[in-house]
Amino acid sequence: MEKVVAKISKKGQVVIPKNIRKTLGIEPGDRVVFILTQEGVLLKKESESPFDKYFGYLGTPGNAEELVRKMRGERDDIGD
Predict the structure, then answer these.
(1) Alpha-helix residue ranges (DSSP H) falling in the chain
(2) Percentages of the chain per state (helix, strand, coil), in multiples of 5
(3) What would you measure as the largest C-alpha separation in the chain, in angstroms?
């Protein structure tokens, strides 16, 4: 088991060493999970939900109906 030491900043931040990031496949923007165990803390890369890649796909709330109308080829002024 490899032992790597990192220093905590005044803001409580820690840099995950490059060899650990590479081993875990952690890249900028990824999320990590801290799991408390009796032995200490376990650090894992958060597994992505298959739905994560679609987050924000429809844009801001309220745009779903407008998107469906556009996909159907309906005009905004119909029925007004």
Answers:
(1) 18-24, 64-72
(2) 25, 10, 65
(3) 69
Per-residue b or e along 35-54, where b marks 16 or more CB atoms closer than 10 Å to that residue's CB? eeeeeeeeeeeeeeeeeeee
The first and second tokens of residue 30, run together, are 């990824």
**CA-CA distance, 67 to 74, in Å (whole number)?**
10
* pLDDT tens-digit map of 11-29: 999 999 999 899 889 999 8
pTM for this entry:
0.52
* Number of residues written out for the chain: 80
